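Handout, section 3.2

Students often ask what a structure token actually looks like in practice. Rather than define it abstractly, here is a full record for Sec-independent translocase. The first block is the sequence as you would receive it.
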Amino acid sequence: MFDVGLGEALLLVVLALIIFGPDQLPKVASQAGRALRQLRAMANTARDDLREGLGPEFADFDVADLNPRRFVRKHLLEELDDLDQQGPMPAEEPLLPFGERPPFDPEAT
């Protein structure tokens, strides 16, 4: 999630020991864990309230879909995949026969 390696995690633990001391570190860690649980509960409540407020039409709504990358991938790239699965599109006949010039309106230019 945070892309923290073993060496970086060790460095963070050593820094926490230096800053808070070995006797205060468990207290600080428990407070941080409690705050994280409360934050998750608040986020889940907000998400549920949003879904309830939007109604049954948006039952499959996911807040993560509001991320621009995910939005583009879901709404544009999936449509392209669907078109690829349908196979090549049939060739359309040209609107003008070969060699015929399109109509020209001198007043339009």
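Discussion prompt for tutorial groups: The helical segments are 6-54, 68-86. How would you have guessed this from the sequence alone?
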